[in-house]
Amino acid sequence: MSLLPVDIGPLNPPVPELAVAAVLFALVLLFCAWLTPRVRRVRAERAAAPHGVEARAEAVRREAETERARVAAPLAEARHDAARVRLRALEEGAAPVAEVRAEARREYATIVTRGQTRIATDRARAEAELRVQVSELASNLASRILGEQVEAKAEPRL
């Protein structure tokens, strides 16, 4: 059975096939009508997902900043306390060092003074001994040069 009484070839479909096609078309249309809202909802969720993640990341960042600020204050105070302790220890350690240095300077001055005194006395003694020997050596040399005996006479030097 044909839809039209005229023979137009393949453009004249049989009625049972046309009924099956209409039912199938209605089923596909209903399926698309059911599927379209779900697809839109899933696409909207996917589009909103990064924004939600960004919002959560921003909230976590703010929370981390407040936590860091809360922890930073005691840490800064602890650093200041440590610096004060180091400074106090340095000052306390510097006092004995200064005392030891002062004692060392006093000992140095004492040793240098004793050494200078000893050098001065040794020099005066050596000078006195050499004066006697110099006059003897000079008279011996003069005796050799002149060929006759010359007496050594020690003259005090002023």
From TrEMBL:
Record's subcellular location: Cell membrane
Primary location recorded for the protein, binned into one broad class: membrane
Tree of life domain: Bacteria
Membrane topology annotation: Single-pass membrane protein
Pfam (any one): ATP-synt_B
Transmembrane region(s): 18-36
Keywords: ATP synthesis, Cell membrane, CF(0), Hydrogen ion transport, Ion transport, Membrane, Transmembrane, Transmembrane helix, Transport
Physiological role: Component of the F(0) channel, it forms part of the peripheral stalk, linking F(1) to F(0).
Family: Belongs to the ATPase B chain family.
Assembly notes: F-type ATPases have 2 components, F(1) - the catalytic core - and F(0) - the membrane proton channel. F(1) has five subunits: alpha(3), beta(3), gamma(1), delta(1), epsilon(1). F(0) has three main subunits: a(1), b(2) and c(10-14). The alpha and beta chains form an alternating ring which encloses part of the gamma chain. F(1) is attached to F(0) by a central stalk formed by the gamma and epsilon chains, while a peripheral stalk is formed by the delta and b chains.
Name of the featured protein: ATP synthase subunit b
Native organism taxonomy: Bacteria, Bacillati, Actinomycetota, Actinomycetes, Kitasatosporales
